[in-house]
Amino acid sequence: MKVARFTVNFFGENTYILWDDVTREAAIIDPGMLKSKEFETIDDYIAKNHLKLKYMLLTHLHLDHSFGVKYITDKYGLKPLCSEEENVLGANIPQQVANFHLKVDAQPVIIENGLRDGDTLYVGDEAINVIQIAGHSPGGLVYYCPESSFVITGDVLFKGSIGRTDLYGGNLNSLLNGIKEKLFTLPDETLVCPGHGDSTTIGDEKDSNPYFK
């Protein structure tokens, strides 16, 4: 599985495209694109690599991770997939925008067919394992690709940090326990692809992340 990262919008959010170089099936994760140039960059990458988008996946429904949902739905005919526990956030995306005093026409995002902990999706022949870790948001998900040894963590785990827990649905103990029980049990060499900032590895975070000392 190949993975490409695109850093977009006011918040420096990482949007990812995962794809299989045999079948050209692909998934876009956390489409945070907001500006026309960001949409063009995604479209150009998909076209250049002859990709067939199969899934639009979200780790959670904070505004910065979901600005581009409507565009992907309209352009590629995909409905967003996430945990249904995130719908309370998705319904309030316009209010999230207002809270940041942004002049953005952001639409609510509603998950109709939710993903759950333990679900498995496939891009080509490769599995994407769905892991739920709440605490940054009510039903946050991460997406683990064991064969290619990487995990898309959204705002659950960052290089040297973790997601904030002072927003709606946040819970520090749930987040820390979820990371220790569901991420730190992955192989140390697993590449961590976070929702903001640079990548890291599970081993490096176990060894040096200050929240686990």
SS-derived structural category: alpha+beta
Element order: H for helix, E for strand: EEEHEHEHHEEEEEEHEEH
Radius of gyration: 16 Å
Oligomer: single chain
Count of DSSP-assigned helices: 6
Give the N-to-C terminal Cα separation. Answer: 33 Å
Overall geometry: globular
Low-confidence stretches at least 5 residues in length (pLDDT < 50)? Answer: none
Determine the mean pLDDT.
97
Mind summarizing the main beta sheet? Answer: 6 strands, mixed
Helix content: 10-25%
Percentage of β-strand residues: 25-35%
Please summarize what this structure is.
Helix content is 24%, strand content 27%. With 213 residues, the chain is an alpha+beta fold.
What key attributes describe this structure?
213 residues, alpha+beta, 5-stranded mixed sheet, 6 helices, 13 strands
Q: Can you characterise this structure?
A:
- There is one protein chain.
- This protein has 213 residues and is α+β, with helices and mostly antiparallel strands.
- The protein has helices spanning 36-48, 69-76, 87-91, 93-99, 172-183, 202-208, and strands at 2-8, 13-19, 25-29, 52-57, 80-81, 120-123, 126-132, 141-145, 150-154, 157-158, 161-162, 191-194, 200-201.
- A hairpin with a 5-residue loop joins β12 (191-194) and β13 (200-201).
